[in-house]
Structures are given as structure tokens and as C-alpha cells.
Amino acid sequence: MAGDALAITLPRPVNGGGRPARRPAPKAKTHTRYFFKKVLVIKMTANFRGVMPALVTPFTENGVDYPALRAHLDWQIASGVSSVLACGTTGESPTLTHDEHNQVVASTVEIVNGRVPVLAGTGSNSTAEAINMSVHAKQVGADGLLLVSPYYNKPTQDGLYRHFVSVAEAAGLPVILYNIPSRCGVNILPDTMARLAAHELIVGVKEATGDLNQMIRTIELCGPDFLVTSGDDGLSLPLWAVGGCGVISVAANIVPGPLVTMWRDWEAGKLDEARKAFFRLLPFFKALFLETNPIPLKYLMGLSGSMSGLTRSPMFPPSEPVKKQLDAIAAEWSAHFPPKRG
Description:
Blueprint: H1 2-5, H2 31-45, E1 50-53, E2 59-60, E3 63-64, H3 66-78, E4 84-86, H4 98-112, E5 118-121, H5 127-139, E6 144-148, H6 157-171, E7 175-179, H7 181-184, H8 190-197, E8 202-207, H9 212-222, E9 227-230, H10 236-241, E10 246-249, H11 256-267, H12 271-287, H13 295-304, H14 320-333
Parallel strand pairs: 1-10, 4-5, 5-6, 6-7, 7-8, 8-9
Antiparallel strand pairs: 2-3
Helix pairs in contact: 3-4, 5-6, 6-8, 8-9, 11-12, 13-14
């Protein structure tokens, strides 16, 4: 088992030297027990790196458009993405019913059928609700969980720790934390992140603070086993340069190919090519946030003809000035868009 672990590819080290060693396991665990649990979790999460689309949820006027979801997933996998995330913010999880949420996760697992790992967004500001959704995700075959910080009720740092550990241990799946203070009103601070990273099931974070200094500190404290992924396409390459290991991406929904190429160039040491690709994509990344995500993305998905582009209230179509900007972006990038459905 230990021999297998040596072959696992871990995140790129910080330039000029390795990152600090992972802090030791709590004394309550024997080294042997901790080591073998950790190896198993690393094996399970080896592919939660690279380009991982935070999937849109296609809608019709009557509900979720599952044929469009199937077509979208097949195209994503053919485009080379590393894994997929169902029911994140981009998937409009706040406006899905509980039954829809569970069904989207189950359908995503069924459609993917083991071709890439599936992360299920199962976070909530209620620990009990997050546990229920997370246990369901495990039952239907998800490979890991994305847990957003509890929003609105603003727990303390210790409350965040207790919440995430409770959900992880109840579900028994690898957990990627989701740190997005702008939406949640609470920030998982680096010291708390390091405390969470010591737990064998909490294996990484989707970092969407927008604060590169905080991300660097998290990498320093949590060590090379902890997967720090960008939650912001526009900070993807800068984060990779200091030890990040991928991006949970909005843009990959509609231009996965260029992002996958950028990641592969980075991994292959083709830094100039990766940098050029990043700066070419940067205006596209910015356009996706001209209004609240996923409004611009859904508009572009509708333009592609691959799905309806419908959003759910309180999300509405973009304003006319924003539509004009998005139309110009679409004219430049449409060759990389998903194929139109018949």
C-alpha cells in the first residue's frame, strides 16, 4: 500500500523549494492508522486536480433538462476535464428543490459512469441538512463532496471546524471545502484550514476569497497533501504558480478545451504557453462576471444552442448592455463552444 502511495502525483511545490511538511496527526490516532487512512484518501482524490467544471444545471420551463445534462457531461468528458462538480453555485443549487438536488447528483453519477470523478455540492448552513445531502451523495456513488461554508448564520472559526468535521465523518467521503466569503459572509481562515486539513477526510479547498496572500498562507500551513484549487478562473494560473493544483471552473462549462490545454501546458512545464493562454482567456473570464454568476454563463450556453440558457428566479437574463458585450465575446470564442443540440 505504501508502495502505491509513492506513485501518486501531488500538487506542484512552491518555486524555490518544497512546502512545509504536513503537520503531524493528532496524538489520539496511531501513526499506522492515520497513515493508511490518508493513503486511501489520497488515492481517492488523485484526480481532483486540473480542470473541473462547476456544472450548470440545464432547465426547461418545467424542471431540470436531463437530456441536456447528459449531452453536456458527455461533451465535457470528451473535452478532457479531470472531474465534474454537480450542484455548486454555478449549478444554481439555491433554487433546486431537495428532490431535484438529489436527482441531479444521482443522474450526474449515472451519466458519468466512472469516466471521471464526480464531486457533489452538498453544503448547507444547517449541519443536519448538509449531512443528509452528503449521505445521499455517497449512497448514489459520488466520489467526493464540496462543502460550502455555512452562510447567513456566520459561525465562529470553531463552529466552522465542528460543522465540516461532522459532515465529513457522517458521510465518509473525501471533502473539498469551499471558501467564498463574498457569498457566505464568513471566511475560513488559514489557521482553521490547517486544523481541518489534519483530518483524513478533508483533503482540499476550493479557494474563492480573491486573496492570493491568504491562499499562499493556506498552502504553507496545510502542506503538499492538501489540494488547493482555484475557485476563480481569473486567479487560476497565479495560484498554480504558488502550489495550487487546479481550478473548479465556471468558464470550463463553455470553453473547456482551452482551459484543459492551459493546465496541461502548465503541468508539462510549458510555462510560456500556459501564460499566453491565460492572458488570452482573461477577458473571457471577466465577461462571465459582468453580472452575477451564472447569469452571463447561462446566456452564452443559450447562444451555443446546447441548452435553453434559462435561469431560475431570482436570477434573470442579463441586461441589454451586458448582452452586447457577451455577444462580442461569443463571436470570438464560439468555435470552442459546445455543439448545438438537434
